[in-house]
């Protein structure tokens, strides 16, 4: 199992664990909510019985204190209406809005609309309980859930939201720290590799010069190819040395840069793979050639490895005039990539080969996005038919808004 598969499996297990915790929390809170609902319903029924008895024995002083004690200890918001639907009694409402004639002394007001709103809300929550009123008509007592019960209903969702926010913050923080640590490892490994390659490259250069002079092989094609490979090693060393530092971007013709690398690369690949480059041969972009060659090399190597027998690799360069962007499409006729793996192929450690570290496309993505401020993604792929990778770079050619005339560089007027 490669590191990407391990990470995905751990994410899956953590997601299941979070769902289990969230579900258990919701069910546990729901248990208490229902229990509290039953208790409030019993309390309301007691209030109704006491109120009903108080209306029957309203002139019996023996039960007055007991009835008042029970009704005052009822914390539920309650409103009683008469046979005509008018409010004639209430309990547990906001005292700041239910006072008569004491506004100036206690700075409290009487708000009739407040009663109407509360009654409407009570009717929506629970049906009214009928009782026999003093006039012999049917009166109704309404109530609504207490403030604590209402808060408790929303508590699981608030709790899950807080937990989710905490987990998201922790995930972002740990991911950022992990990426920073990975970057330090990349930089350290790259610079150490560049340092280690320096000595043997210098030695090989000296041996080639000695072979030229001893065997009079200045024009020998084999020596020339050895020199090309040695120059390639120097380029690779230069690439590694630039990792971790801000590269110098220069204005280049994209077609020429890619074509030069293809001419070198196709001589070192199977002759059954045909290379071609098409599209706009004048479009320009800000590039660091050693690093961008690395991008091209990784894409072409992956394309060549995806072709089992004979095949074709095409690099098409397109310029989007309106967006001032350059599109570079690398298309192969290989085995293709499943759609579910379009993002995974750029993950460090992801590989479909028995040999390999799965770092090529990860490095490619870093170089394109971090150093060239571009984008790279799998544009299209079909199993058994091939894959197209797309690179998007900012064009270094500006355009006049009133014409299609090209202005190289930083918008120099050509009128």
From TrEMBL:
GO molecular function terms attached to this record: ATP binding; phosphorelay sensor kinase activity
EC code: 2.7.13.3
Keyword list, A-Z: ATP-binding, Kinase, Membrane, Nucleotide-binding, Phosphoprotein, Transferase, Transmembrane, Transmembrane helix, Two-component regulatory system
Leading EC class: transferase
Residue ranges constituting the Histidine kinase domain according to the UniProt record: 192-397
Top-level taxon: Bacteria
Keyword presence, Transferase: yes
SMART domains: HATPase_c
Record-annotated membrane-spanning stretches: 12-33, 154-174
InterPro entries xref list: HATPase_C_sf, HATPase_dom, His_kinase_dom, HisK_dim/P_dom, Sig_transdc_His_kin-like_C
Pfam families per record: HATPase_c
Catalytic activities: ATP + protein L-histidine = ADP + protein N-phospho-L-histidine
Cross-referenced SUPFAM superfamilies: ATPase domain of HSP90 chaperone/DNA topoisomerase II/histidine kinase
Name the record gives this protein: histidine kinase
Organism of origin: Pedobacter cryoconitis
Lineage of origin: Bacteria, Pseudomonadati, Bacteroidota, Sphingobacteriia, Sphingobacteriales
